Amino acid sequence: MFQSIEIERFRGFSRLALSDLGRVNLVVGENNTGKTSLLEAITLLANPGMIKGLPGLFRANAGDVDERFYRWLPKHGAEVEQSELRAQTSDPSERRVLLVKGGSTSAAGSESMEHAWQQGDIHLFHDKAFTRLFVHAVSVQHRSPDSMVDAFAATVRAYDDEQLLVSLLNQVDGRIRSVRLDAIESKPFIAVDVGLRERIPLSQAGQGIYRLVAIVSALIGRKPDICFIDELENGIHYTALATVWKGVAEIAERLGIQVFATTHSRECLVAAHECFSERESYDLRVIQLYRIGDAAEGRTLDRKHIEAAIAGDIELR
Predict the structure, then answer these.
(1) Would you tell me how many other CB atoms lie within 10 Å of the CB of residue 179?
(2) How many domains does the chain have?
(3) 204 lies in the same domain as 277
(4) Which residues contact 291 (CB under 8 A, 6 or more apart)?
(5) Do 266 and 146 belong to one domain?
(6) Do 21 and 44 lie in a common domain?
(7) Are residues 10 and 91 in the same domain?
(8) Buried b (16+ CB within 10 A) or exposed e, 268-298
């Protein structure tokens, strides 16, 4: 797991230092405070090779965006147009990634750094002894049901995992009896039994069910080292948020997955706190991002500070 992260001159961050990260981290903040930028920085620290797919991982991009996207990664207007990302992990070991703008690759400054990628005049370096982590993102944009089939099949392969998924879905919609792979003309699709005369396609089962299947399939079926869940509450009624958090907490702990989720919902934050308060280990942290002037800042809140914020009705979203 990442225990701490430091970001310098990356997108809107002049400097951001976050320590005491948890198994599950909920990122909150107003619009344009850097939530997506933080997830992009963590992605590069986990696996620098994912920079090629970074434009469409969290942001809506279309057309030829590469050059326009990458040239804005180093903070605009900084005296030194070089981003530096660092993370301390539970090994313990340190990870370091540099994004350098300009033709001179000597800016990396160390023989221990490897020149791994270039787009236009943007160069990426990382430590030569770099272990890449498997990262998966659950976007706020609904993916095609077809793209979920493989992960879903892996999720329901083990009986206990299938029962966990059905139990969570049943708490969201009491009509649900099972969820299975079906096929028409050899093309598999996910189908849900809601008590009708035949199972219905997942796409017809409602946004809450669709979203929960996507989240659980990403965690169990993909088994990433790090899972991002953008706007976790999207499509889910506030009364079902406790169920979603129960599943996320249980699966993340059992499979050793570190989760970074974003939210704009106070109900989502309260549901997360209540869920982890009932667990043996309170392994939830809230990363609060905010803006001071034109600079994005942030801090990590532990249980004591989360409880104080909720009790005092301090705005964390």
Answers:
(1) 23
(2) 2
(3) yes
(4) 30, 32, 33, 297
(5) yes
(6) yes
(7) yes
(8) bbebbbebbeeeeebbbbbbbbbbeeeebbb
Tokens for 220, please give them. 């169990």
pLDDT for 220-279, tens place per residue? 999 999 999 999 999 899 999 999 999 999 999 999 999 999 999 999 999 999 999 999
Residue 258 neighbours by CB distance under 10 Å: 25
pLDDT digits (tens, 9 = 90+) for 71-122: 889 988 777 789 999 999 987 778 999 999 885 555 555 678 999 999 888 9
Listed residue (54, 57, 50, 251) closest to 132, CA to CA: 50
43 class by beta-carbon count within 10 Å (0-12 exposed, 13-18 middle, 19+ buried) = buried
Is residue 11 within 8 A of residue 34, CB to CB? The reply is yes
Q: Is the pLDDT of residue 296 over 90?
A: no
Beta carbons of 193 and 177 less than 8 angstroms apart:
yes
Write phi, then psi, for 260 (nearest 5 degrees): -125, 115
Q: What integer pLDDT is reported at residue 93 of this predicted model?
A: 78
**Structure token pair of residue 209:** 């069910």
